[in-house]
Amino acid sequence: LAMHYTSDTMTAFSSVTHICRDVNYGWIIRYMHANGASMFFICLFMHIGRGLYYGSYTFLETWNIGVILLLATMATAFMGYVLPWGQMSFW
């Protein structure tokens, strides 16, 4: 996908259309990527819920490292997908 996508704001939407229509199985790669990212965060939040349910927050050092990892993951997703010229809307 990286060979077909352009990040320029004038051609980004056209390149996504090109991926979906002209690249072999590009449409399914696009949907698997979007749904996989959503599923990753759902699993992440379920893991946090499991920790809350079983009282894992009492292990402060382990819990704090998990919070730092969660914040780093969310910051990475924000910086990589949401910020670059608002192009998350193209997907």
TrEMBL record:
It is a multi-pass membrane protein. The chain crosses the membrane at residues 37-57, 63-83. Pfam families: Cytochrome_B. It is found in: Mitochondrion inner membrane. This is Cytochrome b. The lineage of its organism: Eukaryota, Metazoa, Chordata, Craniata, Vertebrata. Gene3D superfamilies: Cytochrome Bc1 Complex, Chain C. It comes from the Eukaryota. GO terms for cellular component: mitochondrial inner membrane. GO terms for biological process: mitochondrial electron transport, ubiquinol to cytochrome c. The cytochrome bc1 complex contains 11 subunits: 3 respiratory subunits (MT-CYB, CYC1 and UQCRFS1), 2 core proteins (UQCRC1 and UQCRC2) and 6 low-molecular weight proteins (UQCRH/QCR6, UQCRB/QCR7, UQCRQ/QCR8, UQCR10/QCR9, UQCR11/QCR10 and a cleavage product of UQCRFS1). This cytochrome bc1 complex then forms a dimer.
